[in-house]
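As noted in the main text, all predictions were made from sequence alone. Below is one such record, for Hydroxysteroid (17-beta) dehydrogenase 4.
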Amino acid sequence: MNNYANRVNLVCFAGLGREYALAFGQRGAAVIVNDLGGDIKGGGRSSAAADKVVEEIRAKGGKAVANYDSVEDGEKLIQTAILRDRSFARTSDVDWDLIHRVHLRGSFLVSRAAWNHMKNQKFGRIIMTSSAAGIYGNFGQANYSAAKLGLLGLSNTLAIEGQKYNIHCNTIAPTAGSRLTETVMPPDLVQSLRAEYVAPLVLWLCHDACPENGGLFEVGAGWIGKLRWERSLGRIVRQKNESMTPEAVRDAWSEICDFTDASRPSSIQESLQTLVEVLSRVEDERGIRANPTGATAGTNPSSAVGQTLPEMSFSYTHMNCILYALGVGMSTREPDHLKFLYEGHQDFSCLPTFGVIPALSAMTGLGSVPDLNIDFTRLLHGEQYLEMFRALPTSGTLTSRGSVADVLDKGSGMVILLDVHTYSEGELVCYNQFSVFIVGAGGFGGKRTSQKAVTAAPPDRAPDAVIVDQTSRDQVTLNTLTAPLFTSLGFKSPILHGLCSFGFAARHVLKQYAANDVSRFKSIKVRFVKPVYPGQSLQTEMWKEANRIHIQCKVKETGDVVLSGAYIDLHTDASTGGLQSDLVFAEIGRRIRDAGQELVKKVNAVFGWEISRDGRTVREWTMDLKTGGGSLRSGASKADVIFTVSDEDFMEVVKGKLNPQKAFFSGKLKVRGNIMLSQKLEAVLKDYAKL
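Prediction:
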């Protein structure tokens, strides 16, 4: 992560700034180092501190110049941090004004001076330095706390205004020892909270590849955490044509302050939406409710769980399959696309993601479910899971049966998980789970999370493969022909629905890792984040982890993520053959299905397995004995302990020919994580293996 060359970084130097300057200089940036060289109360000045850092950078081959100007000279890009502590009663106008000039006004002037340069070059990274005193308050620091929290408000607004110019603004609240805090911290604590434990976060937030914008992070001692606002569901305490009284506030106080099922607004629009809903509810005389976005009075959406929907039929011909392939970007200009576009091709096939289309009609059945009372104009498609059990016929009639898997209360809205199983002549072809968000339908007191909704973050490394495809101006028309349920209502111009990006990403993975062999496709899960406009380029980033391909899809021109938390599971290439260990894991899965809840009580852990052949991992398993009724699934997930072993050695242990301890000490069995949890495996494996 060294591509800071050709960047000019201003480092406003005071304590932490030295580490930022050295780190940027080491990675090729040209650095402007400023330090007034004042004392901790803001008095005096000296060039020595800035000069010393410049010398250090240059001695290591870096580029740096010093600057000693005042913070008031915003055009010279200066920011200085000063401690000037006074209890509130003793805070003078000078104490207040000096701190605000240095911290808040100084940051404003610095940022304003750089802003147009950043806009013109379509790139900028601004890091505001707030403080725990600003976030939480601190005795004797009223002036400092107010200025530091003011920086957060400034940062949030710059993040919004700068986003379209690729200017990102984030805020850090560091705890670090420096010359400014050495008089108020014990020496050993100053040493433990070294500034170099903060600098790596600043470098990452300034990196071209970092997507973070508008974030707030606490950092210190090698630890980093992200903060966010949280808001209770609250309580309406007035009724139409009646006065609002302090007594009503008093009587509802416990509900007003109850953070159970709290919401987390992230924009002023989300914040104001609640007030709009409040006005609507009061005007409709729906009275006092726990949440302004709540469901209709007298209904209980949670009771809809398990409800079945009317059976739907979907008839199609090969033309539908071809139209779908065109709609997700395939072209006859590409020879390897012909098998999906020409019905006379010897291997003519239907893209696996077409399996979503027959199931879409089942969603309309949600309108008939009692207690849901869905307004379809407020429905957003949030996530999608598709699993294939056999290749889709290229024509025929499919039957879909839907049921409500779960209903979640998100405060500002309601999430419905809809399961749809699709059959061809009585044989299961595919399974879909739609996750839909109904804006303004929350607040009914339901649960917030579900074990039936799972996504997976990509590995923390550069993608293993990237494919970019430009969408055509006609893409939205082609895509709408096969997925008419979703439209572009509410947008100034037509958009490509998330299911179009879904199809693009899936075919990219099929091309990269399965040679367009649809029989290799097992399942896909995505979270829809943002829309794509026709003509923009879709960039699919891929990380291969055994048979699971983690994916993230972006708009190349803007960097906006449109699909996140996504992955595709592939079946093992038939040319590699099956593994002996597959039979053992199949039996383990059966045992978990039969006695999962009992095992979860005994074990309370998640185990991962990496099975190798010829020195490379060819199969991964996740044995979850911590949540729900337990599960065994193919693929890697976060685990408490992970075992790595070859297929051959695994079977030797299972058969009792290889002692597990000897396997471990000889390196044949590797263990990562909490090794003591391996003892609990006996509860699962004692009847089938000796691990």
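The two ends are 41 Å apart (CA to CA). The chain has 19 helices and 22 strands. These features were considered when defining construct boundaries for the mutagenesis experiments described in Section 2.9.
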